[in-house]
Design brief:
seven-stranded mixed β-sheet; five-stranded mixed β-sheet
């Protein structure tokens, strides 16, 4: 991303979050018509209204940029600059009145996430990351924790049913080694990791719009985020994501996840 354009693009990502917040809150904890998509995930009028508004804003300001979203057709994925948006990350939380849903906005440059925003409308909280810059929580620089021992680590995942028959035993093997585990939170867990309240987040079954915005936020706070093989997250990543407060914790967690999935392991499916 050209240095001269960075402030404008980071600011615009924040403006997209500004657009999303009132739209989400206008529908939160109101009677909602829920539809179920082919993958059995729910979608509401709020998801669609927010994505339409974000796409319209991007098209007006940066018509040459590509757009990838959860609810509508992809535009210009081959372009140098591509916006990736998830209008409601945590729709199940949203439709059950839980405030732990967010809007995710990412800007990819040549396929790599350079800007990421985790917007939490109901909490009035926002995490902003940009490659090469410190992550900020509501405008204040935040850092990951200094926890390096698995036995001291606080581990989060959104839900146990996100793991398949091979992933679930691997996650359980890791969970047995940490100090504390919690389910729930969706994208919020990654913001909490960036602020030092959570040390590990391990998930599966994610799509690019679920994780692209998380990368600059986690990395800009000092953390590490990859797939379960330790590879950088890309548009073609398989959906298994691990985020850690630091490289030492990341390496330990990866080793357990890998060993548990090896052929012949008593934990492997």
């Amino acid at each position: 991303m050209p240095t001269s354009n960075r402030p404008e693009l980071v600011a615009f990502a924040g403006q997209l979050a500004d657009i999303a917040r009132p739209l989400a809150m206008a529908h939160f904890r109101t009677p909602l018509g829920i539809q179920w998509k082919a993958d059995a995930s729910p979608v509401t009028i709020a998801d669609r209204a927010i994505e339409r508004a974000l796409r319209a804003a991007i098209a007006r300001r940066f018509p040459a940029h590509g757009i990838l979203g959860e609810e509508e057709e992809t535009v210009g994925l081959e372009r140098e600059l591509v916006w990736v948006v998830d209008p409601i990350d945590g729709t199940k939380s949203f439709i059950t009145g839980l405030p732990l849903f967010g809007t995710l906005v990412a800007l990819l440059v040549a396929g790599r996430p350079h800007v990421g925003v985790i917007e939490m409308p109901a909490l009035g909280e926002r995490f902003v990351g940009a490659r090469g810059e410190d992550t900020r929580f509501n405008g204040i620089v935040c850092r990951t924790s200094g926890v390096t021992r698995l036995g001291d680590a606080r581990l989060c995942a959104t839900a146990p049913d996100m793991f398949d028959s091979i992933e679930a035993p691997a996650f359980s093997a890791l969970a047995d080694k940490v100090g504390l585990q919690r389910f729930g939170g969706d994208c919020y867990a990654y913001g909490l990791l960036a602020c030092g309240h959570v040390d590990l987040v391990v998930e599966a079954s994610l799509k690019p719009y679920d994780f692209m915005a998380l990368v600059p936020v986690v990395e800009g706070a000092g953390g590490v985020i990859t797939d379960w093989d330790g590879a950088p997250l890309t548009l073609s990543s398989g959906g298994r994501v691990i985020a850690a407060a630091n490289g030492a914790l990341h390496a330990q967690a990866l080793a357990i996840l890998s060993a548990a999935r090896e052929p012949g392991s008593r934990l492997a499916g």
